[in-house]
Amino acid sequence: MIEILIPAIILSLIGGFFYGVYVGNFKSAPFKQIEKFYFRNKKGITYNYNRSESKEEVKHIYDNDVNSLIRINNENDITEKRQKLIHYLWGSNELPKRMPDKIENNFKDSRYSNLKNLKQINRLTIDMEHQMKSIIYFFEPNEKNGKLVIYHEGHGGDWIREIDTIRHFLSKGYCVLGIAMPLLAFNENPVIDFPEFGKIKLEFHNQLHLLETDEFHPLKFYFEPIAVALNYIIDEFNIERTYLVGLSGGGWTTIIYPALDERISHGYSIAGANPIFLRLDETDYYDYEHTVPEFYRIANYEEFYVMSSFGEKRKLVQIFNKWDTCCFSNDLYKIYEADIKKKLTSLGKGTFENYFDDTYRGHKISKFGLKIISDSIESD
């Protein structure tokens, strides 16, 4: 028995050590040596990238004058950029004012039947051009606090994978909106008959540029569902404050959308995006929406950080996961963070914060990340 037990204990200890290293929670020696060997991307840059680790091939990123990239000097500049962005997307000077095309009250989805304080789910349908359709869940609590949390899922599809986030805020009396990116989750995948290309089924974001014309810009598909849903929810349920929480592609949306819509009080982006000059290899460019030249010439990422943070009691928070298995697993925000904060200080209002989460290995909102978000919202 002893002959079996001792090797089993030794194997368990070794296995536990390497699992701890894998998830990033066990940092005893020789963790640092293993980390340097294992946790590196294609460029050989450690995930915990900082100025002291600069390599010759990426030294150019420090030559950028971030402050000069922020072409905003006063509130009028922000207003002007917002109007130009809205006009680019919708061809008008204001956000869409319409209501959802269909509202199904008390919609049944058994996956959410055990959520505490859930009165009902209202299923919203928003129809758009080119047969595009957005399906949204509105989780209405029994006891409401007059505040709304929008959870925006990324390329993972359905918001069910962040049910813990939905459960957390619903239990505290927040109305919760579950929304997905275009073409994902319950959203439509239309077949478009292009005169130039033939019939194509739209299934991934890089196809959307095929819809681009001088008069139509498919980037609107990412933002219109939020605007239309808010038109219905804010008035119908007497919402006083609105918080946008997004993961991955939803994190990208969280960086961009508050700049367009001042109804968003706070934005919390998890693994969302870096400025274009910090995209260090081909894989960092991701999908179509990240680098549409005409859009980002109106406002670049540095300016979106400022615009989405700016305002009385407005805030933009970014969380990057050190051990993220998908996207932006670095602390490159340190290169531009001070310049964004300095600009907001000169403008007189607005908050921009960044956090580097080393508590979890994976691509989701960790317990640590959720606490940051919840504490920030609760203190508002």
Q: What is this entry, summarized?
A:
With 380 residues, this protein is an alpha/beta fold. The chain is built from eleven helices and eleven strands. It is globular and about 80 Å long.
Structure description:
The chain is α/β, with parallel strands linked by helices and 380 residues long. It has 2 domains: 2-38, no CATH class; 51-378, Rossmann fold (3-Layer(aba) Sandwich), CATH 3.40.50.1820. The chain has helices at 2-23, 31-38, 66-69, 75-90, 163-171, 220-236, 249-260, 293-298, 301-309, 337-347, 367-378; strands at 102-107, 118-127, 133-141, 147-152, 175-179, 191-194, 198-201, 241-247, 266-270, 315-323, 351-361. The strands form 2 sheets. The chain has a 9-stranded mixed β-sheet with strand order 1-2-3-5-4-8-9-10-11, sandwiched between helices. It has a two-stranded antiparallel sheet with strand order 6-7. Strand 10, helix 10 and strand 11 (351-361) form a beta-alpha-beta unit.
Task: List the SSEs and their pairings.
Blueprint: H1 2-23, H2 31-38, H3 66-69, H4 75-90, E1 102-107, E2 118-127, E3 133-141, E4 147-152, H5 163-171, E5 175-179, E6 191-194, E7 198-201, H6 220-236, E8 241-247, H7 249-260, E9 266-270, H8 293-298, H9 301-309, E10 315-323, H10 337-347, E11 351-361, H11 367-378
Parallel strand pairs: 4-5, 4-8, 8-9, 9-10, 10-11
Antiparallel strand pairs: 1-2, 2-3, 3-5, 6-7
Helix pairs in contact: 7-9, 9-10
